[in-house]
């Protein structure tokens, strides 16, 4: 019993430490995302993309890069852009960029995993888009694309947002910043459950799950081992998405767990595959089926999974060739003293103060300023309810663990 209580305390402390490490990065990322969504509307994106395929893919990638990292928001925006006439390949480019190339994800990865994974994330995101583009060109699924567009025709028209005001003028208006504050709140509303559950799972895994489990799940993994055969790397790449599917958490919440996997000896390719897997899970499959039909939904999963395997392999062997494969020993997040007076402390205080000002501006000083809600992909009410109660259970678990660590043991 004493051992369990000690592990419980360590799990709760590790989770809160992980979140403390990442707090300023979350705040910065979501403020930037909120600003871009207010000042660069979806309607502006659609006007700019045009019909030229190369141009539309490049712009789709760029607009995805500056959009929200929430998968459900990305799915809805992708559907809307595709419905308004964007090509299928540019819509896929937008979807992949908005879940793999976003600013906030790179910041979180740099904190937990280091610069090689940040390079891998951004280079890999571009590779994912290029491989999907090539596959679409080779397969040329014209009938599937036409059928998908017909499925969307039955929907009503999307609400047109007013974008008549120049963004340079908007950025000088206090009311625009009140809209940023409301969007910032929405960003947190979209991710709080995923982040809570993801970080809690990471703390539990760190404290309770033995290394032997990972060595069984990922063949030949283990601390200190960096020499993998091609088949072992391929197995890690295939198992990575399965592990991501089982955690059922978005990429932002999964980064601490990705760091733990790497620290336990999983290959660089396997960890990158784990991070890239947020679009090949069942909720995304179901939403795409609702939008475009089941055949197109399965085709998108095929595209993304094939691209994921190719990208992870290319990253691993190119990094190995350049002699920049990261060393698992560089990930020491379990052994860190999380709460001390360092740059993290001062950044957290500064960004919490900025958050406080945004809340004051958007919900007290300018509370009458209206801002239209971003369209979200249709989540499963049952799964969302389950996730909500799991998140609440996580808070109870964390509170109990911290009490155990500091007042009982």
Q: Measure the end-to-end span.
A: 11 Å
Main sheet, how many strands, which sense, barrel?
Answer: none
Number of helical stretches of at least 4 residues: 18
What structural category do the secondary elements indicate?
Answer: mainly alpha
Helix percentage range: over 70%
Radius of gyration: 22 Å
The tally of beta strands, per DSSP, is 0
Order of helices and strands: HHHHHHHHHHHHHHHHHH
Describe, in plain words, how this protein is organized in 3D.
Helix content is 75%, strand content 0%. It is mainly α and 409 residues long. Helix 1 crosses helix 18. The chain starts with a helix and ends with a helix.
What's this entry about, in short?
Helices cover 75% and strands 0% of the residues. It has helices at 2-39, 42-49, 53-65, 71-83, 88-100, 103-112, 115-139, 142-153, 167-170, 174-208, 211-217, 230-247, 251-263, 268-275, 282-292, 294-321, 343-365, 381-408.
């Amino acid at each position: 019993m004493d051992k369990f209580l000690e592990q419980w305390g360590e799990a709760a402390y590790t989770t809160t430490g992980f979140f403390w490490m990442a707090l300023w990065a979350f705040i910065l990322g979501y403020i930037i995302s909120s600003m871009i969504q207010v000042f660069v509307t979806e309607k502006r994106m659609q006007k700019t993309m045009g019909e030229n395929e190369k141009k539309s893919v490049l712009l789709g990638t760029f607009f995805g890069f500056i959009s929200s990292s929430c998968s459900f928001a990305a799915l809805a925006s992708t559907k809307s852009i595709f419905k308004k006439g964007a090509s299928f390949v540019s819509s896929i480019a937008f979807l992949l960029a908005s879940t793999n190339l976003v600013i906030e994800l790179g910041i979180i990865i740099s904190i937990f995993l280091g610069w090689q994974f940040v390079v891998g994330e951004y280079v890999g995101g571009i590779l994912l888009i290029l491989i999907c583009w090539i596959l679409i060109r080779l397969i040329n699924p014209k009938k599937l694309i036409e059928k998908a567009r017909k499925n969307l025709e039955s929907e009503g028209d999307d609400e047109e947002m007013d974008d008549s005001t120049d963004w340079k003028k908007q950025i000088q208006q206090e009311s625009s910043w009140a809209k940023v504050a409301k969007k910032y709140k929405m960003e947190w509303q979209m991710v709080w459950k995923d982040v809570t559950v993801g970080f809690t799972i990471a703390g539990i895994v760190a404290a309770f799950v033995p290394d032997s489990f990972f060595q069984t799940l990922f063949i030949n993994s283990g601390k200190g081992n960096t020499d993998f055969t091609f088949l072992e790397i391929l197995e890690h790449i295939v198992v990575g998405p399965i592990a991501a599917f089982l955690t059922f958490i978005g990429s932002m919440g999964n980064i601490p767990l990705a760091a733990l996997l790497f620290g336990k000896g999983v290959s660089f390719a396997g960890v990158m595959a784990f991070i890239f897997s947020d679009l090949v899970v069942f909720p995304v499959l179901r939403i795409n089926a609702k939008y475009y039909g089941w055949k197109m939904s399965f085709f998108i999963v095929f595209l993304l999974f094939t691209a994921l395997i190719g990208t992870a392999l290319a990253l691993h062997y190119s990094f190995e060739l350049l002699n920049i494969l990261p060393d698992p020993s560089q990930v020491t997040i379990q052994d860190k003293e999380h709460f001390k007076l360092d740059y993290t402390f001062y950044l957290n205080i500064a960004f919490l103060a900025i958050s406080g000002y945004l809340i004051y501006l958007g919900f007290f000083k300018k509370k009458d300023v209206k801002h239209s809600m971003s369209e979200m992909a249709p989540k499963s009410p049952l799964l969302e309810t389950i996730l909500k109660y799991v998140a609440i259970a996580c808070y109870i678990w964390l509170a109990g663990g911290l009490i155990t660590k500091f007042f009982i043991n």
